[in-house]
Specification:
Elements: H1 10-60, E1 70-72, H2 95-111, E2 130-136, E3 139-147, H3 161-164, E4 173-181
Antiparallel strand pairs: 1-2, 2-3, 3-4
Helix pairs in contact: 1-2
Protein name: Type IV pilus modification protein PilV
Keywords: Membrane, Transmembrane, Transmembrane helix
Pfam families: N_methyl
Amino acid sequence: MSFKRNGFSLIEVMVSLVILVIGLIGIFNLHLVAKKGSFESFQQTQASYYANDIINRMRINSSQLASYAGTYTGTSITSAKACDVIVGANTTCTNIETRNWDLFQWERAFSGVNEISSDNNNVGGLDSATACIRVVGTDVTVVMTWKGVRATSDGTETKSSFVKSCGSSSDRRRALDVDTAIIR
Protein backbone atom coordinates (compact mmCIF):
# COMPACT_ATOMS: atom_id res chain seq x y z
CA MET A 1 0.00 0.00 0.00
CA SER A 2 1.51 3.31 -1.05
CA PHE A 3 0.40 6.58 0.40
CA LYS A 4 0.42 9.58 -1.88
CA ARG A 5 0.61 13.06 -0.37
CA ASN A 6 -1.59 15.61 -2.05
CA GLY A 7 -1.34 18.62 0.27
CA PHE A 8 0.25 20.18 3.30
CA SER A 9 0.34 18.77 6.74
CA LEU A 10 -0.95 20.77 9.68
CA ILE A 11 2.61 21.21 11.01
CA GLU A 12 3.79 22.75 7.72
CA VAL A 13 0.90 25.20 7.77
CA MET A 14 1.61 26.16 11.40
CA VAL A 15 5.34 26.71 10.71
CA SER A 16 4.50 28.94 7.72
CA LEU A 17 2.05 30.98 9.81
CA VAL A 18 4.64 31.48 12.58
CA ILE A 19 7.19 32.70 10.01
CA LEU A 20 4.59 35.01 8.46
CA VAL A 21 3.58 36.46 11.85
CA ILE A 22 7.22 37.10 12.82
CA GLY A 23 7.72 38.94 9.51
CA LEU A 24 4.58 41.03 10.00
CA ILE A 25 5.61 42.00 13.53
CA GLY A 26 8.98 43.13 12.18
CA ILE A 27 7.32 45.23 9.48
CA PHE A 28 4.95 46.77 12.05
CA ASN A 29 7.85 47.70 14.35
CA LEU A 30 9.76 49.16 11.41
CA HIS A 31 6.71 51.29 10.60
CA LEU A 32 6.57 52.61 14.19
CA VAL A 33 10.27 53.47 14.22
CA ALA A 34 9.95 55.22 10.84
CA LYS A 35 6.99 57.31 12.05
CA LYS A 36 8.86 58.39 15.19
CA GLY A 37 11.94 59.29 13.13
CA SER A 38 9.80 61.21 10.67
CA PHE A 39 8.19 63.19 13.49
CA GLU A 40 11.60 63.95 15.07
CA SER A 41 12.78 65.22 11.68
CA PHE A 42 9.64 67.35 11.30
CA GLN A 43 10.22 68.89 14.74
CA GLN A 44 13.84 69.70 13.82
CA THR A 45 12.64 71.39 10.62
CA GLN A 46 10.03 73.39 12.55
CA ALA A 47 12.63 74.53 15.11
CA SER A 48 14.87 75.69 12.28
CA TYR A 49 11.98 77.59 10.73
CA TYR A 50 11.09 79.32 14.02
CA ALA A 51 14.71 80.29 14.71
CA ASN A 52 15.09 81.78 11.24
CA ASP A 53 11.70 83.52 11.55
CA ILE A 54 12.75 85.52 14.62
CA ILE A 55 16.17 86.27 13.12
CA ASN A 56 14.48 87.76 10.04
CA ARG A 57 12.12 89.78 12.25
CA MET A 58 15.15 91.06 14.18
CA ARG A 59 16.87 92.07 10.92
CA ILE A 60 13.86 94.12 9.88
CA ASN A 61 13.65 95.86 13.28
CA SER A 62 17.40 96.03 13.98
CA SER A 63 17.14 99.26 16.01
CA GLN A 64 15.57 97.15 18.79
CA LEU A 65 18.07 94.29 18.43
CA ALA A 66 19.28 94.17 22.04
CA SER A 67 15.75 94.20 23.45
CA TYR A 68 14.84 90.92 21.68
CA ALA A 69 17.15 89.07 24.10
CA GLY A 70 15.45 86.83 26.65
CA THR A 71 13.87 83.46 27.37
CA TYR A 72 10.49 82.70 25.84
CA THR A 73 8.12 79.85 26.68
CA GLY A 74 5.09 80.71 24.57
CA THR A 75 3.39 82.86 27.19
CA SER A 76 5.96 85.60 27.86
CA ILE A 77 4.23 88.27 25.78
CA THR A 78 0.49 88.11 26.53
CA SER A 79 -0.75 90.74 24.10
CA ALA A 80 0.60 93.27 21.69
CA LYS A 81 -0.63 95.89 19.27
CA ALA A 82 -1.16 94.30 15.85
CA CYS A 83 1.53 95.66 13.57
CA ASP A 84 0.96 93.54 10.46
CA VAL A 85 0.90 95.50 7.24
CA ILE A 86 -2.43 94.89 5.54
CA VAL A 87 -3.31 96.33 2.14
CA GLY A 88 -5.47 99.38 2.72
CA ALA A 89 -4.82 99.49 6.48
CA ASN A 90 -3.44 102.49 8.26
CA THR A 91 -1.46 100.92 11.11
CA THR A 92 1.50 102.83 12.46
CA CYS A 93 3.66 101.11 15.04
CA THR A 94 6.76 102.26 16.85
CA ASN A 95 9.85 100.05 16.80
CA ILE A 96 9.05 98.90 20.36
CA GLU A 97 5.47 97.97 19.40
CA THR A 98 6.82 96.12 16.37
CA ARG A 99 9.26 94.18 18.58
CA ASN A 100 6.44 93.22 20.98
CA TRP A 101 4.25 92.16 18.05
CA ASP A 102 7.12 90.11 16.55
CA LEU A 103 7.72 88.29 19.84
CA PHE A 104 3.97 87.79 20.43
CA GLN A 105 3.44 86.20 17.00
CA TRP A 106 6.63 84.15 17.23
CA GLU A 107 5.76 82.73 20.66
CA ARG A 108 2.24 81.85 19.52
CA ALA A 109 3.68 80.06 16.49
CA PHE A 110 6.28 77.90 18.23
CA SER A 111 3.93 77.02 21.12
CA GLY A 112 1.22 75.91 18.69
CA VAL A 113 -1.48 78.35 19.78
CA ASN A 114 -2.26 79.24 16.16
CA GLU A 115 -3.31 75.66 15.33
CA ILE A 116 -6.12 74.23 17.47
CA SER A 117 -7.68 70.77 17.11
CA SER A 118 -11.42 70.11 17.31
CA ASP A 119 -11.02 69.29 21.04
CA ASN A 120 -9.27 72.65 21.71
CA ASN A 121 -5.69 71.34 22.03
CA ASN A 122 -2.68 73.08 20.52
CA VAL A 123 -1.53 70.83 17.69
CA GLY A 124 1.02 73.04 15.94
CA GLY A 125 4.39 74.18 17.13
CA LEU A 126 6.91 72.27 19.20
CA ASP A 127 6.24 70.10 22.25
CA SER A 128 7.18 71.90 25.51
CA ALA A 129 9.20 74.49 23.61
CA THR A 130 11.50 77.07 25.14
CA ALA A 131 13.39 79.65 23.09
CA CYS A 132 16.33 81.76 24.19
CA ILE A 133 17.85 84.74 22.43
CA ARG A 134 21.23 86.24 23.28
CA VAL A 135 22.47 89.45 21.67
CA VAL A 136 26.08 90.60 22.06
CA GLY A 137 26.70 93.63 19.87
CA THR A 138 25.65 92.45 16.41
CA ASP A 139 26.13 88.73 17.21
CA VAL A 140 22.86 86.91 17.81
CA THR A 141 22.32 83.38 19.13
CA VAL A 142 18.85 81.85 18.94
CA VAL A 143 18.25 78.55 20.75
CA MET A 144 15.12 76.45 20.33
CA THR A 145 14.61 73.53 22.74
CA TRP A 146 11.72 71.09 22.77
CA LYS A 147 10.70 67.66 24.00
CA GLY A 148 11.52 64.82 21.61
CA VAL A 149 9.54 61.61 21.14
CA ARG A 150 12.18 59.12 22.27
CA ALA A 151 14.43 59.15 25.27
CA THR A 152 18.02 59.26 24.03
CA SER A 153 20.22 61.87 25.66
CA ASP A 154 20.04 65.54 26.47
CA GLY A 155 20.44 67.41 23.19
CA THR A 156 22.68 70.03 24.79
CA GLU A 157 25.45 67.83 26.23
CA THR A 158 28.15 69.14 23.89
CA LYS A 159 26.82 72.70 23.62
CA SER A 160 27.79 75.98 25.30
CA SER A 161 26.52 76.97 28.74
CA PHE A 162 24.03 79.40 27.15
CA VAL A 163 22.47 76.59 25.12
CA LYS A 164 22.46 74.28 28.16
CA SER A 165 20.62 76.90 30.22
CA CYS A 166 17.74 77.10 27.72
CA GLY A 167 14.83 74.82 28.64
CA SER A 168 14.60 71.99 31.14
CA SER A 169 17.30 69.34 31.23
CA SER A 170 15.91 65.95 30.17
CA ASP A 171 16.83 62.81 28.25
CA ARG A 172 14.24 63.92 25.68
CA ARG A 173 15.37 67.53 25.27
CA ARG A 174 16.29 68.43 21.73
CA ALA A 175 18.07 71.67 20.90
CA LEU A 176 18.82 73.74 17.84
CA ASP A 177 21.05 76.78 18.08
CA VAL A 178 21.67 79.32 15.35
CA ASP A 179 24.49 81.89 15.51
CA THR A 180 24.38 84.84 13.16
CA ALA A 181 25.29 88.50 12.88
CA ILE A 182 22.77 91.25 12.23
CA ILE A 183 24.25 94.42 10.80
CA ARG A 184 22.32 97.59 11.62
